[in-house]
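Practice problem: predict the structure.
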Amino acid sequence: MKGHYQQYRDKLAEPLVNYAKYAEGRIGPVSWTKQQFDDDLQDDFNERRQTLYTAANVEACNSFASNDVTCPAPGSFRGNINWPPFQAPCQ
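Answer:
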């Protein structure tokens, strides 16, 4: 699995996610006001920001930064912890 920076970099390379590549050719319907266009563009940017945020928050088990006990050796996921204080509360 890739680390968080590589996930972010790979996702940013996609033209539909990259802000500059997306916004460069962006136009709106002639009937829209400037505010409608701005709002639509902001919504689209927020969507791309969330996509990049999600990609950047993936941390691989083989990462040097991972101190997670579920990954004792690079690339060897051992499963979720299910004892106090680590277990998730019942919903």
